[in-house]
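Write out the 3D structure for:
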Amino acid sequence: MFKRDWDRRTCAKRGHVTYAPAEPELAAGLHASTALGDAWRCLRCGDFALGAPHGSGPAANAPLVPRGKALRDLFILRFLAVERILRGVLILIVAFGVWKFSNSQDAVHKVFDQDLTVFKPVTDHFNWDIEHSPIVDTIRKTFDYKKSTLLIVAGALVAYALIEIVEAFGLWLGKRWAEYLTVIATAAFLPLEGYELHEKVSVLKICTLLLNIAAVVWIMLSKRLFGLRGGVVAFEAERHSASLLEVEQAAGTVPPSRGSHART
């Protein structure tokens, strides 16, 4: 069965990432001499690339290039980032609409009542009491809201949209603080989404609720947030073990030195 190689696919788009470690034994495993010149092994896909390395120095200072599972996780985070940015923009549009409505509430009310009379002959023909329709009643209730209340709603929507947009940029860049923010913000709104689903079931609401639950669970477990599965220490160790330099060390080229990589 065909399996997509995300490491090589990413290198094909962005180019290889090579590094010359200062340790001779380790450098020998990552370097090759060819008829066309020196070649260095890519830290992401493992292929040899012609030309000078992009960096050099101690193995402990080598760049941590997302590859394998870490790279796939980054793709998922960026999918969530796109969903967040789209949602944030949509909420900003709604907030702008609420703000505009608050400034012209009376005028819109008059236009609504005038236009409603145009449809009355048609609705009367089908014996539909449009004056007491649930939809019309809901719209009319909004006309009774105070301007200050509508402004508060607009402000709250803007704040929510900004949180979504900040989440989106942080997730796109793979920032750990954004993962915490996403989990906390998303989990905080799950009860509200459940209540809305209880009030009125729809396919969109069900899909949105399931997506958010899945996102919270996946981020918490895969990124080892809140101390889960060893917490940040285990997460950093997993990231470093994905480096080809660490793979070479684990193979016995040079003694492993994970202690120099630990972070908190």
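The first strand starts at residue 20 and ends at 21.
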